[in-house]
Specification:
With 73 residues, this protein is of the alpha+beta class. The chain has one domain. It contains 2 helices and 3 strands; from the N terminus they run E-E-H-E-H. Strands 2-1-3 form a 3-stranded antiparallel sheet. It is globular, with a radius of gyration of 13 Å. The chain starts with 10 loop residues before the first strand and ends with a helix.
Length: 73
């Protein structure tokens, strides 16, 4: 059957493009209340990288719930 997961609040899985179509998982970040979707994703990148994201790097912040669904195939 399905795997059990600890209930957590909304958050993001943050990825960084490393080469071409290859991505690596940087970490996870909680969603900050009161921010728009775009600002919440940008904040998640800053939180997951501890502020070390550099100009020119490409990041993606995927909702943790969507990440879990995508991994459940």
């Amino acid at each position: 059957m399905g795997r059990t997961q600890e209930k957590r609040g909304p958050g993001f899985v943050v990825l960084r493009r490393i080469e071409g179509a290859m991505w690596e998982v940087v970490g996870e970040a909680e969603r900050r209340p009161g921010l728009t979707a775009r600002k919440a994703r940008a904040q998640a990148v800053q939180d997951a990288t501890a502020g070390s994201a550099r100009p020119g790097e490409t990041y993606a912040a995927v909702l943790r719930s969507e990440w879990a669904i995508a991994m459940d195939i």
